[in-house]
Amino acid sequence: MKTVGLRTEAGTGRRKGARNTAAPAAPAGDGHTRESVVQLLLEEGPITATAVGKRLGLSPAGVRRHLDALIESGEARATRSAPWQQQGRGRPAKQYQLTATGRGRLGHAYDDLAGAAMRQLRELGGDSAIAAFARQRVGTIVAGIDKLARHTPESTAAKAEEIAEAFTEAGFAASTRKVGAGVQICQHHCPVAHVAEEFPELCAAELEAFRELLGTHVQRLATIANGDCACTTHVPLFVLPNDVPNAPRTVAQPATVKTNDSGRSAE
């Protein structure tokens, strides 16, 4: 990486040997690299420093510099990996993810305008109008996604991934990951988080859409609107017949995953 060096003493008029108290200039392009680190933490966090370096082609020292700066500014945090995430022996590696402050770097366009419009809608149509609007908004995001026809671990995981892709296209930076006998849909960003703090109907409509498309009981573990680092929804990879209306009396077997995790999102 190209850097901007300090001026030498020659020709500066300074006494030779005098102490230079000026801070070294930041490496050229450091701002762009920092933004790339932020984006990676957003889309794939929690993630280890080693993984960040491999993805962005940075040296260990470079990764530490950026991560330490983000932690110092309150934009990122580090936690130890869960036991089931540890590979090999030794102390669990640290994993890094954005905080609410870090996600704030991405901006929340038109929050004030959207909030004012929602409040006016509630005055005119009541809570039912807000709920109807929320359902219509989510319906637009998942338009074209068919309901899950048959429950198997593979088909359920594939449908969850399809939902995550639709939300990513809508600006939610969503992904999926298998945890125990389930899969989690993780939305690492929420373009309407500040509005959803006041209008939880937006979050409720998303959960309702997940349940309808997946045809099973799903559970919300965390939401950005409540101050968590991501919106995390747990989807079981197997269902009991009683959980699915009009379903045949068969039970799909869970995928074989060796884990000691409780099923909650790793943070």
Describe this structure in words.
With 267 residues, the protein is α+β, with helices and mostly antiparallel strands. The protein has two domains: 65 residues, Orthogonal Bundle (Arc Repressor Mutant, subunit A), CATH 1.10.10; 129 residues, 2-Layer Sandwich (Muramoyl-pentapeptide Carboxypeptidase, domain 2), CATH 3.30.1380. Helix content is 41%, strand content 13%. The strands form two sheets. It has a four-stranded antiparallel β-sheet, covered by helices on one side. It has a three-stranded antiparallel β-sheet with strand order 1-3-2. The protein is globular and about 55 Å long. The two termini are 32 Å apart. The N terminus and C terminus are likely disordered.
Task: Summarize this structure briefly.
By secondary structure, this protein is α+β, with helices and mostly antiparallel strands.
Attribute tags:
Muramoyl-pentapeptide Carboxypeptidase, domain 2; Arc Repressor Mutant, subunit A; 267 residues; alpha+beta; globular; disordered C terminus; 4-stranded antiparallel sheet; 3-stranded antiparallel sheet; disordered N terminus; 2 domains; 8 helices
Residues in helix, %: 40-55%
Shape: globular
What is the CATH third-level topology name of the largest domain?
A: Muramoyl-pentapeptide Carboxypeptidase, domain 2
Q: What's the helix count?
A: 8
Level-2 CATH architecture of the largest domain: 2-Layer Sandwich
Low-confidence region ranges = 1-28, 245-267
- What sequence of helices (H) and strands (E) makes up the elements? HEHHEEHHHEEHHEE
How do the strands line up in the largest sheet? 4-5-7-6
% residues in beta strands: 5-15%
Mean pLDDT: 78
Major sheet, described briefly? 4 strands, antiparallel
Radius of gyration: 23 Å
The secondary structure category is alpha+beta
